[in-house]
Structures are given as C-alpha cells and as structure tokens.
Amino acid sequence: MAQQGIHGVWANRWTFVLAATGSAVGLGNIWKFPYITGENGGGAFVLVYLLCIALIGIPIMVAEVLLGRRGRQSPINSMRYVAKEAGLSSNWSAVGWMGVLAGLFILSFYSVVAGWALHYVFQTGMGAFEGATREVSQGVFGELLSNNTALISWHTVFILMTVGVVMAGVTRGLAMVARVLMPLLFVMLIMLLGYGMAAGDFVGAAKFMFSFKVSALSWDGVLIAMGHAFFTLSLGMGSIMAYGAYMPSHSNIGQTVVTVGVLDTLVALVAGMCIFPIVFASGIEPSSGPGLLFQSLPVAFGNMPGGLFFGTLFFILVSIAAWSSAVSLIEPGVAWLIETGKFNRVTANLVLGGASWLVGISCALSFNLLADFKPLFLANRTPFDFLDFLTAQVMLPLGGLFIAIFVGWRMAKAVMEDEMDAEGHPMLDIWLFVLRYISPVLVVIVFVITLMNTFAG
Ligand code: PHE
Fold first, then answer.
1. Within a 10 A sphere around the Cβ of 248, how many other Cβ atoms?
2. Which ligand 1 atom lies nearest to the CA of residue 24?
3. How far is the CA of 437 from the centre of ligand 1 (A)?
4. Ligand 1, atom 6: nearest CA belongs to which residue?
5. Is the per-residue pLDDT at 71 higher than 80?
6. How confident is the model at residue 74 (pLDDT cuts 50, 70, 90)?
7. Is 50 exceeded by the pLDDT of residue 1?
8. May I ask which residue range the UniProt record assigns to the signal sequence (predicted)?
9. CA of 232 to the centre of ligand 1 (A)
10. Cα separation of 42 and 274, whole Å?
C-alpha cells in the first residue's frame, strides 16, 4: 500500500459516510436539481437522472473510493501511484489534474450561489418575506442580483468560510460540519414537504416530477441529467477519491457508497417535492432557472406560521450543506500542493481559495454587468453558465469515464479484491461488469449524440 496518513484518516467508516454525504448533499440537490428539472420538463428528466445515478454514478463512485484508498494521497498522486502499480504511464495523473481544475471552477460559481443563501438567512430573518407573494419574492431576488456589493461580499464570505475549514485539516475540520447539521437539514425538508402538501399544489408537483412525457426531454436534457448525476454525487473530479484516501483500510466500500448515493438522491427528490408545490400554487414558472429556489420557498415561509423562524433556519441549513460540499471541492488541490512539499495547509488554501475567488467574481457579475457577455469562447454563455456547463457536462463526465476505464479495464483484479475485501463476492463481479460495459458506454453514447446534435443544429 502507498504511504498512509500524510493528511489524516477518518476515525471510522461512519465518518467517511458523513463526510462523503456532506460533500454530495449540497446546492446540487436543493438548488440545482429542482431548477434543471423545471427547465427540462420534469418526469422524463427525473427518470434519466435516476438511471444515471444507478448505472453510472454509484459504480463510478465505488471505483473512485477504491482508487483513493489504494493511492492514499491527493487524486493526482493517487492516480500516479495506481498507474505505476499497474505498470502504466504516469500520464494517468492527468485525471487528477483535470479534477483539481474542475473543483476550482465549480467552487467559483458554487460560492456565488452559496452567497445568495447566506444573504437569504438575513433577509428571511429580518422579515423581508412576511406575507410575501410571488411578486415580492421575485422582487427581493431581483434586488440581490442587481447589488454587486452584496453579491461579491457574500461570495467572499463563503470562500473564507470554506478555506477556514480546510485549513483546519481533514479530521478536525471537514468531519465536524456534517455530523449534526445534515440530519437537521433532512428534518427541515420533511417539514417543508408537509407544508407543500397542506398549502401547495402537491398533486401538480407530483405529476410534474414523476409522470414522464418523453417528448419534454431533449438530448441536451439527457446530457444535463447525466452531468448532474456526477455533480450531485461529487464524482469525476477527485473529491470522493480524496475522501477515499482518508478512509480506514478495511471498511466496506460498496455498502458505504450505496448509503451515500441513496441519501443524496432522497434529499434531491424531497427538495423537488418541497419546491414544486409552491411553484405551481403561486404561479412561478418551473423553468425560471437558477432563481427558482430563491423565488419559491420564501413565498411558503412568508405565509406559514413560524415562517420567519423556519425560513431563517432553512437558509442556514442550505448554507451549511453548501459549506460541507465546498470544502471537498478544494481539498484535492490542497492535498496535492501539500504533497509537493512547498506548501502547508494554510498557504495551499490561500492560493487555491484566492484563485477560485477571483474567477468567481465573473460569476457573481454574470447576473447583471456581465449578463449579456456571452462570447463564443464561453460557448455563448455567461461566465457563470459556462463554468457550470464546462464542469458538470464536460469535465466531470470525462473524469468519470477515465476512472471507469482505468478501474474497469486497467487495474489488476487482485488489487481490487484486496482493496475491497471481496474475493469471489458475486456483487464484485456485477459491479465490475457494469463498470466495464455499461457506465463508460453510456457516457460515451450521451457525449457523442449531444455533440452530433450540436453540430447538426
Ligand atoms: N455534490 C455537490 C452538490 O451536490 C457539489 C460538488 C460537486 C461537490 C463536485 C464536490 C465535487 O452540491
């Protein structure tokens, strides 16, 4: 085995589950999933997303944890180690490089949205949504988007919160956040679900999310669903590989990963079923884009008993969910910088946090000053939309594809069995089959078809 414990090791398997769930459950589930479901017509999109989680996400997540635990270092050096062990070129470390870059790109727009959530903690707490209608909540959101000082300040605050935790180190920093607050978030979502059932258009929402009209879904939508499976499970960029590197040697990887995957999916579905009843009852467009969460839920909070309290608490929890994800976006790069011997945890965080902060400014301004800045080199998108597209729909699936190919086709089965403690276990063969013949093939098919459509259209 590779050298162990330069960065620390989780106390036990449950700490890994908590940390990985903390990474997986975030804005992807509560903010992004509902709005992309809304933009892509509902049910059929949800179905494709669920299939991608099961056939691509979970198998690749197992592979990623496996690679991390075998390599025991940052994704860049873990990939180098496992490639060497398999007698292959050290160029496989490029998977780690692309991941580190993807993590920084994601953090730069992620922290802008997390900043919105922080702003909403105070807005809700100060009663901005008392008795709110759709117009009021849309007004408050619009005001935020036109306020550069607020946008950039909250973005800065969130980046500082993130590097603060990562500076404190793996065991002391990252593991702590998830423990109490994730369960609390889940309880809050269930409560909102109750409100949606009682006061919103629950039936309309259920129909929208679970009855699939295939006609509503385009190939672009399929790529978005697949990309989102990677995004929501934190796959394809090394977060989970880095966390796997800190996993104790003999904990069962398969079970652990399934637990994380199921929890993540549940949070997304429940979040959708909280938001859409309010969307439909208040006449908000399901396709209103990134603002959906921020325009719909305040209407509920503004009109329910105790809404001031619950609304404030809700946005606190969303901020925390974002926080425990953001730390995993930067950890792979930080671990690598430390391994070079030229940085410590503090300086590594300053460098990478600073880079994401800088790029993030362009994302913060994508909703006002740069709203019409959609140059060809950003694929006709604003900086915010471009970085979202580039990471979720290109870099993460590509990273996942290479991980599937490496583990499925290049890694010695003996190494796998040793690492998984699963010699001759039938699940191992089923997993390996899916990882070889199904996950990578599906990723390639979706890529090729969307590319063809882009150039044909
Ligand atoms: N999974 C996180 C979410 O759903 C985002 C994330 C992506 C975190 C990639 C780490 C790596 O919000």
1. 13
2. 1
3. 26
4. 234
5. yes
6. very high
7. no
8. none
9. 5
10. 14
Angstrom distances, CA of residue 90 to CA of 77, 289, 431: 9, 41, 26
CA 414 to ligand 1 centroid distance, Å: 31
**pLDDT per residue over 332-353, tens digit each?**
999 999 999 999 999 999 999 9
Q: Which residues line ligand 1 (CB under 6 A)?
A: 23-24, 26-29, 106, 231-232, 234, 237, 239, 325, 328-329
* C-alpha 440 to ligand 1 mean position (Å): 21
For the CA of 29, the closest atom of ligand 1 is 4
pTM check: above 0.85: yes
Greater confidence (178 vs 258) lies with 258
Residue 331 CA, ligand 1 centroid: distance in Å:
12
How far does residue 258's CA lie from ligand 1's centre (Å)? 17
pLDDT of the residue at 2: 45
pLDDT in tens, 395-448: 999 999 999 999 999 999 888 888 887 666 788 899 999 999 999 999 999 999
**Residue of the CA atom closest to atom 7 of ligand 1:** 234
